[in-house]
UniProtKB/TrEMBL annotation:
Disordered: annotated span: 122-158
Subcellular location: Nucleus
Xref: InterPro entries: Homeodomain-like_sf, Myb_dom, Myb_TF_plants, SANT/Myb
Species whose genome carries this gene: Actinidia chinensis var. chinensis (Chinese soft-hair kiwi)
Protein known as: Transcription repressor like
Entries under Pfam families matching the protein: Myb_DNA-binding
Domain HTH myb-type: 8-60, 61-115
Length: 228
DNA sequence: AAGATCAGCAACCGCAACCAG
DNA sequence: ACTGGTTGCGGTTGCTGATCT
């Protein structure tokens, strides 16, 4: 049985040094990304290809946006998670400069807890306690216009929304609703020219993610939310 | 001040998808 | 259609700094 690349001897593990970063940056600058398997040797790095790809994609590539997520980004993550589930790469694709790892970490450390505190099940975006279903659906959690409000304000808005027959969990609540079937949603993310996209069930294979991602690129986030 | 606990983040690992032969 | 190699994704781990007792 072939060893995985990371099990090879003479490969470093753990945190990257500045020198390693520099080597990787320099190599990519000269040759571009790709051929991760052979890159480490070519670049003079004692790392496996996977490790190099991860380091590049998550920390070294240009145009990465580091630092705190703003409220709009958090809103968008919550909404996209309700729609897509744990498809972090797809979600990150809608957040310019953010990586899937970063989004995933932020979800697990902040947003998940935030939803739990609000009484919302983060896995299905439904209220944890049994409350009547909303009489009429709304497009978004709290809009994207609360960026000036404090986090507490935001949270209280959401809690208020919850008490007002919840608008928060609309998008995701249907995911677990026994009367609601994902495949029948025929979720059309297309706005204009190209063929429509339907997310068919939870089977990952049935979604051409790159196509979805490309389609989503045509859809400004607030418009996308209208489908939810 | 010191130890314990918590939170955030970087990185690893395993698996599935993809692709070329 | 099958197979083996490569890449990408998501879950998980472990380290580190911050906060609490």
């Amino acid at each position: 049985m072939r060893k995985s690349c990371c099990e090879k001897q003479d490969t470093n593990k753990g945190a990257w040094s500045k020198q390693e970063d520099q080597k990787l940056i320099e190599y990519v600058r000269r040759h571009g990304v790709g051929s991760w398997r052979t890159l480490p040797q070519a670049a003079g790095l004692l790392r496996c290809g996977k490790s190099c790809r991860l380091r590049w994609n998550n920390y070294l590539r240009p145009n990465l946006k580091r630092g705190k997520f703003d409220e709009d980004e958090e809103d968008l993550i919550i909404k996209l998670h309700a729609l897509l589930g744990n498809r972090w790469s797809l979600i990150a694709g809608r957040l310019p400069g953010r990586t899937d790892n970063e989004v995933k970490n932020h979800w697990n450390s902040h947003l998940r807890r935030k939803l739990i505190n609000m009484g919302i099940d983060p896995t299905n975006h439904r209220l944890s306690q049994s409350l009547p279903r909303p009489l009429k659906p709304h497009a978004s959690v709290s809009g994207t216009s609360h960026s000036s409000s404090s986090r507490d304000d935001h949270q209280s808005q959401l809690v208020k929304a919850k008490c007002d027959n919840d608008q928060v969990s609309d998008a995701g609540s249907c995911l677990e609703d026994p009367t609601w079937e994902f495949p029948n949603l025929n979720l059309d993310l297309r706005l204009t020219t190209s063929p429509s996209i339907a997310i068919v069930g939870e089977e990952r294979k049935q979604i051409n993610e790159s196509t979805v991602s490309r389609e989503l690129d045509c859809v400004p986030p607030p418009t996308l939310l209208l489908f939810m």
